[in-house]
Amino acid sequence: MTDAATVMQHCDVLAACTDEPGSITRPFASDAMRRAHQYVREWMREAGMAVTRDNVGNLRARYEGTGTATLLLGSHLDSVRNAGRYDGPLGVMVAIAVVKRLRDAGRRLPFGLEVLAFADEEGLRFGSTYLGSRAVAGRLDGAELRRTDAGGVTMAEAIRAFGGDPEKLADDRWRGDRPLGYVEVHIEQGPVLEARGLPVGVVPAIAGQSRFEIAFTGEAGHAGTVPMDRRRDALTAAAEVVLAVEAAGATQEALVATVGRLEVEPGAANVIPGKVFFTLDVRHPDDRVRTPACEALIARTRETARRRKLAVEVRATSERPSVRCSPRLTALLKQAVAGRAPEVPSGAGHDGVYMSEITDVAMLFVRCKGGISHNPAESVTTADVGVALDVLGRFLELLARQ
Ligand code: HGY
Ligand code: MN
Ligand code: MN
């Protein structure tokens, strides 16, 4: 079996590591993640790497070089709910496969390689993103530990149950000299490469993103007896804001704005919704556009509450400026493509966002069918994965020659 086919097979094996049988849902520090770690540790060891796991729950695998510097590779192992099987795992499996090629060839580079399999990029369980790469970047503050999941479990308790010490997250911070870089292979999660008929592309920048949690509180009431003009309906207020969010994205170039989650209480057919909780996700390549767009949407949310005599709570849950990838490493990646390598800006966030705090970042995108992602229909071809493997291998050789 080719190593690209092995990468695909490993992504299939990880797809079965889920908390929700019948779909792929692999949250931070979950049983599904524990099962995934057993496989990934084995594959890392088979590739000749020494494997450790840090407190937050990242797997870290090292392949020594002849020199002391380190190049970081990797991606994340967690998923969204009802996810596809390549968002995250593909990058980890390609990184492992490229190390295995070196090991099988008895090759040592003038720098070490460290493959990072991040514990949580999506933020599914606790609503806060990039926990794994934030720990490595030394940017995971203690306040996060008090967040609770849907079952009321705190992040600290989840870390402890998974085998880490939440009091020692500071130990997860990258300790060595500044790494040579962090290079991530990831599915494009968009339509550009497929439209261009190309297998891979390079990423000039990762869009900045803001996430909010919003709650409207009105008054629950009898659906049959409260006149329409006497209601303080939390859901109709939220509906107004949801359409305003869509309008903001539709009218501002390159701005995307999404309400991904909305919960209605008490959630009965004959009760006027008293409370609604929903999320807001706003992104744009230019922070000077994203920030005022967020401010306008939050102002509209508060104005809607005032007009409809509702209480409103707005909580900013995460905010990350856009990140420019390293022109130097990206040029080397382009050279390694040895063909057309379009620049495809990333609307999706990636662990490189926080890794850029400690080193230069570069990303290689792999074509995905229909640009579909965060969806079980997510798919890539073995041939394109083979291209990505060859490109990453050539990139390492080019870097070794510098
Ligand atoms: O939301 C994102 O952009 C990424 O999938 N976490
Ligand atoms: Mn991802
Ligand atoms: Mn994702």
Mean pLDDT: 97
Round the Cα radius of gyration to an integer and report it.
Answer: 22 Å
The backbone outline, from C-alpha atoms, is globular
Helix share of residues?
25-40%
Strand content: 15-25%
| Number of discrete domains | 2
| Largest sheet properties | 7 strands, mixed
What's the CATH architecture of the largest domain?
A: 3-Layer(aba) Sandwich
Report the structural category: alpha+beta
Number of helices: 11
The CATH class of the largest domain turns out to be: Alpha Beta
Order of helices and strands: HHEEEHEHHEHEEEEHEEEEHEEHHEH
Low confidence ranges: none
Which structural traits does this protein have?
402 residues, alpha+beta, Aminopeptidase, Alpha-Beta Plaits, 7-stranded mixed sheet, 11 helices, 16 strands, 34% helix, binds (2S)-amino(hydroxy)ethanoic acid, binds manganese (II) ion
Describe this structure in words.
The protein has 402 residues and is an alpha+beta fold. The protein folds into two domains: 3-206 and 323-401, 3-Layer(aba) Sandwich (Aminopeptidase); 208-320, 2-Layer Sandwich (Alpha-Beta Plaits). Helix content is 34%, strand content 21%. It is built from eleven helices and 16 strands. The chain has helices at residues 3-15, 31-46, 89-104, 131-136, 155-161, 192-196, 234-251, 287-307, 327-337, 352-355, 382-401; strands at residues 50-53, 59-63, 70-76, 112-118, 181-187, 200-202, 205-206, 208-217, 221-222, 256-258, 262-265, 271-272, 275-284, 311-320, 323-324, 361-366. Helix 1 (3-15) runs antiparallel to helix 3. The radius of gyration is 22 Å and the shape is globular. The protein starts with a helix and ends with a helix. The model has no long low-confidence stretch (mean pLDDT 97). Residues 121-122, 129, 348-349 line the site of (2S)-amino(hydroxy)ethanoic acid (HGY).
